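Below is a filled-in request sheet from our internal design queue. Each sheet records the structural input a requester submitted and the sequence that came back. We keep these sheets so that new team members can see what a complete request looks like end to end.

REQUESTER: design group, bay 2
PRIORITY: normal
MODE: inverse folding
CHAIN LENGTH: 370
BACKBONE (tokenized):
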């Protein structure tokens, strides 16, 4: 197998080297115990080993999870939901299965399309009976690093998030009781839950399994990461110029900061200000007037795959997004102070677009596809 550096892949399908994958050091004991079982584990956050008995007693399986180049090396895995191959496999099965919806027609992947960076290709994606919500389905890459979830940050863990769409009347339109009943009636699920959790099928375990699968969806090792890792030919001149604008006069990195290109904060760009139906964003969660029109700064990783853009899906291309910023967003009383007309030339706009396109690296490993 080739080193990851030479293949533009995410976290699987290439030989992990310490420099490239920035693997988390695994204690020698664990390493031996794991390799003894044929458990190919490149890296796991040490906290996962709080419950390592559970992890190590898992039957032999192949699972490689490591932070691809460019991401924080330590993968935040909650202590009460250690990542195991059985949980990941069960979560994947659930993610792609319309059994979670009342009609038996909608799965998580109906709106979070793997080939679109696990985002939707429609401004507003259709849920049960073709009903539409009011927001664009965002990418699911690198969600394990997220401080909060949803455009307004109303939930704080992937476990809590996973139960929301199931019960949302315009998404999957079901109830937790009904889903548990359908799962209990299914021999495959009874078996898979038993393998993954000592106490079998429950709401909590349903959430834990889906969250475990989502934690494996990582995007890194993009041309931008390789450039920053001294592979200077990884970026075209134009994309390199775009990187410079992104970090300087474009003001982009004021909000899209850090390895995941987000400050995890809520910001007002004005994108849907004054449009009907009114969406007041973070205000709905906090009730603070200053939060009206603020939405979570999204990651920009794999952003070239996730059009249309913004919480309302109103901008159809990266060029439209950059032109929106070039105008300084939409004026409103709560507009973020970092939103200003940029006076970028047409070629500078193109530089930024080329840079954004060079943020893709999250080739979805085939093991994560249906
Ligand atoms: C009908 C379309 C639809 C379905 C089905 C759906 N989602 Fe979503 N998802 C969305 C939309 C729209 C949002 C944004 C909603 C908001 O911010 O208020 C979202 C947001 C999310 C987020 C938050 C991402 C972030 O960065 O804030 C996660 C995680 C997620 N969905 C996972 C799932 C999972 C897991 C399932 C299946 C159990 C699922 N979704 C089913 C449309 C859908
Ligand atoms: C004031 C903070 C801020 C600044 C400055 C900023 N962004 Fe954003 N960006 C956001 C927020 C917040 C959103 C989501 C807005 C919404 O949907 O309401 C966003 C959305 C985006 C999206 C769409 C992502 C998606 O998944 O829909 C792209 C692309 C983007 N920004 C690129 C840029 C670029 C390029 C620049 C610099 C020219 C920039 N941003 C400057 C905060 C900012």
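RETURNED SEQUENCE:
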């Amino acid at each position: 197998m080739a080193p990851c550096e030479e293949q533009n892949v995410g976290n699987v399908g290439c030989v992990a080297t310490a420099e490239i994958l920035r693997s988390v050091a695994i204690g020698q004991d664990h390493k031996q115990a794991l390799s003894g079982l044929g458990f190919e584990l490149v890296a796991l956050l040490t906290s996962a080993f709080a419950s390592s008995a559970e992890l190590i007693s898992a039957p032999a399986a192949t699972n490689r999870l490591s932070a691809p180049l460019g991401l924080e090396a330590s993968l935040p895995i909650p202590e009460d939901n250690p990542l195991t191959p059985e949980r990941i496999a069960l979560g994947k099965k659930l993610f792609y299965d319309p059994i979670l919806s009342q009609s038996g027609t909608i799965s998580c992947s109906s709106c979070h399309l793997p080939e679109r960076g696990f985002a939707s290709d429609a401004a507003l994606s259709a849920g049960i009976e073709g009903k539409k919500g009011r927001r664009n389905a965002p990418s699911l890459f690198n969600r394990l690093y997220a401080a909060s979830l949803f455009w307004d940050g109303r939930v704080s863990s992937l476990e809590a998030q996973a139960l929301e769409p199931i019960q949302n009347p315009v998404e999957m339109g079901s109830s937790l009781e009904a889903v548990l009943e359908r799962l209990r009636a299914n021999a495959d699920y009874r078996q898979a839950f038993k393998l993954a959790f000592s106490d079998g099928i429950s709401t909590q375990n349903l959430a834990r399994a889906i969250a475990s699968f989502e934690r494996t969806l990582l995007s890194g090792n993009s041309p931008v990461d390789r450039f920053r890792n001294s592979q200077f030919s990884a970026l075209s001149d134009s994309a390199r110029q775009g990187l410079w604008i992104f970090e300087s006069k474009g003001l982009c990195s004021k909000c899209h900061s850090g390895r995941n290109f987000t400050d995890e904060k809520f910001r007002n760009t004005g994108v849907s200000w004054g449009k009907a139906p009114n969406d007041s964003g973070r205000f709905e969660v906090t009730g603070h007037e200053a939060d009206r029109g603020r939405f979570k700064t999204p990651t920009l990783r794999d952003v070239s795959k996730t059009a249309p853009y913004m919480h309302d899906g109103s901008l159809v291309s990266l060029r439209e997004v950059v032109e929106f910023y070039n105008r300084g967003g939409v004026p409103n009383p709560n507009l973020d102070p970092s939103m200003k007309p940029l006076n970028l030339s047409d070629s500078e706009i193109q530089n930024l677009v080329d840079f954004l396109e060079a943020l893709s690296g999250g080739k979805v490993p085939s093991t994560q596809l249906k």
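SHEET NOTES:
- The beta strands are 266-267, 295-296.
- The mean pLDDT is 85.
FILED BY: M.R.
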